[in-house]
């Protein structure tokens, strides 16, 4: 009742209680403020009150502020929008997005049939909607090199690991124009998929439909039915007002596109036209003066729209557009990376056998602070993943848009996650998207990632307060060093460690990593002095292990790759430590110092330098190249059974054999 009468109640903050946990902890004063309705339990994710609060917030706030007013999974984990328009710049990602959602829809329908639901009455996907086989590796390679430029927004493929709120602030879908005469049903599939994800309401819908072969009106009605659309911009010429009424009867703002057909204009302003939409307040009509429509007819259509019978209380805005759609262009072309041999992370570390025996239930939470991930390149189905985006675009527009952390067009974050997950398959990922192209980052509230219980954070940028808070909570910061040699400014957060000699504040939890080859030789432009450990960072295959995922056409290399290798090994070290600690008779002491544990094991993994003939072994010094197989057993013949494996690992951690 209060929310209905006083809408602004939902966006009010109140200070935390003087003796609350927030005040007791060293949380900044700004972060101590709580929403008025923060008394709702975090587990009460679907209560009527919370749903009302969310809807009121969406109607009043830009998306960048939404999560700060809610508790529970809204801050980290559930999506409040869907924008896949950036995928149009990389057709391979767009194709995979549609492929996977149709695959999931088919799986849901098959599951309903198996469970005994009225499957005889369920509608099967049209033949055009059946999931096509994923593109071949050759096709993938060709498509991936088609577009090198990336737009400033974000986006990708849908997997069952992504959850949505019951209400979304907006859904943006690009054109699927192929230039061939075929029925398009992609948007229908996307909205059906959202409904399977329990989405019930969408505030704003924008669909760039195909000019000459758009979705049928019947499919549009099916796609939007039951979603309580408030603003509808379906870019299809001559869309019937009857279809709009069937698809979005409560629409308040409506965009219509005219091909110059006078009969359609008569319909729009007739008795069965826009006057039948009771909540309509604004109509924006665009006359498409393009190809077959002359200038005089376009002006005539504009005059009809401006002077026609307008429904009472409805503002009509009319303009003439001289082109349809946006020419994406072909971008810059590139060729395959060549025939360089690629090595998977488990090959480089020689941990295949060890990972087969390692059956630990311990799961280390790893925070990945990069460009987000793409589910066309990294499988959310196969890993525990949740995320949050701190990247917002179109901030000057009425509806600010948030990048989708799981739909990233930049492949960097996906590559890092693939490397880490292959070395510790059971780790849990907390993805914080702070940039969309690896060239700049939004500070946002990344420090809050730490409160999510992560034990390791891999990043290439961090502020002092982030590093300091991580240190106080025993969290490891894995970071790369410069790949531009010594002729560069200091790289942060790596410099927090390298500059600590004589400093009052030491950051032993910061582990700067240098990329090198299999012999420990740093890469050509690496900054050797800035590193704490060397890890293999050359000729690494960063593709996912799922055969349906897009494959990286070339190899990845550099300090960021080496940092991902180090992060995966560190996560595995901590997982094994917690496994030994959880035994009925613990084989390791209960030490809460994660940085100390990882540092100690990394030192045991260091590769010794070869000494000359006749020189005593004591003269050998440890090289900074970390080799996991020097610590973890990798020979199948040396691991007799599970009990022997546990006992052997326990002795290694205790400082024995």
From TrEMBL:
Gene Ontology process terms (BP): proteolysis
Disordered as annotated region, ranges: 112-150
InterPro entries assigned to the protein according to its UniProt record, in alphabetical order: Peptidase_S8/S53_dom_sf
Listed transmembrane segments: none
Top-rank lineage group of the source organism: Eukaryota
Biased composition (Polar residues): 116-125
One GO MF term attached to the UniProt entry: serine-type endopeptidase activity
Designated name of the protein: Peptidase S8/S53 domain-containing protein
High-level lineage: Eukaryota, Fungi, Dikarya, Ascomycota, Pezizomycotina
